[in-house]
Amino acid sequence: MHKTFIKTAAQLAAMAVLLGAFGAHKLKDFASVTALATYETAVRYQFYHVFALLLTGILYKEYPFKQVITAGKLFIIGTVIFSGSLYLLTYISIAGIDRLKWIGAITPIGGIILIIGWVLLAIGIKKKAL
To answer: What is the number of other CB atoms lying within 10 angstroms of the CB of residue 108?
Structure first.
């Protein structure tokens, strides 16, 4: 499982660099300041949780507990929901699709999932390996 987390972290990192570069060099040409701030938050939290996922993959070798595995899975799911919904909100803002602004209500769900992931990681590494 740890290799899967590390591989996924590498893929999410590459995507974050690509999306960050797009935001810095092209998106600013047609997005509002608010939309850019939303997009930047998405990229930043995606990157934060790349490191969380890498850490989880590395720690799993010493702490092979279900809480650690679940934490890694929640980091992936939470990142997709949290950052993904913010990327969508940016697109919705640029495209002027007002009827889809409700997607912003999904973002906190992703945040809660990320928080639970951090708590489970702490619980998992608090245990002693046999």
So the answer is: 12
